[in-house]
Amino acid sequence: MNDDFVPLDNHSLQILHELQRDARQTVQQIADKVGLSSTPCWRRIKEMEASGVIRGYTVVVDREKVGLNLAAVTEVNLDRHHESNVRGFEKAVAASPQIVRCVAATGPADYILTVLVPDIKHYEKFLHATLFEQAGVTHVRSAIVLREVKNEGSLPIESGTALRQR
Question: What is the chain's percent helix, strand, coil content, to nearest 5?
């Protein structure tokens, strides 16, 4: 059971769905779609922002149109999970703009990163300047993305889902 779980009713789930679909909609447009008036809709949005359900608003950018032509899925292993190694590695990850996603994982890799760079030469520079420089990094495996089959930014939220269950 997740202690951070925030129970949401159907209206709030519908609001989240609408915001994920198009966050540029006005509160009135969202309210019309979910069957509320604008004031209760606005209040629900503010409550979800305050509780951390809504963490922010962003824009989706086509990475190739801004010159980030190479995507790599990079697996990293640390030799020992000393707190200083973990903290140092995670700090370096947070400071690297090329790393757009990082998860600590079970299985053969300690961390799985998504790295975006212009080309393979930039990826090699990234490896040497960022990953290979970190204390405790023992193994790095890279898979170059040939084609994105699905890259969905929205969570699968719909009214009536198990999100309302605890």
Answer: 40, 20, 40
Packing angle, helices 27-34 and 38-51, rounded to 10: 100
103/111 Cα distance (integer angstroms): 6
> Given this model, what pLDDT does residue 3 score?
66
* pTM for the whole structure: 0.84
Residue 111 burial (10 A CB sphere; 0-12, 13-18, 19+):
buried
Read off the pLDDT of residues 54-84 as tens digits, 9 standing for 90 and up: 999 999 899 999 999 999 999 999 997 788 8
Q: Which residues are registered as beta bridge partners of 114?
A: 73, 101
68 contacts 118 by C-beta, under 8 angstroms: yes
Which two structure tokens, joined as six digits, stand for 104? 């600590």
H-helix or E-strand spanning residue 65: none
- What distance in Å separates the CA atoms of residue 23 and residue 21, rounded to the nearest whole number? 7
Residue 112: count of CB within 10 angstroms of its CB: 17
**Residue labelled with tokens 């495996």:** 141
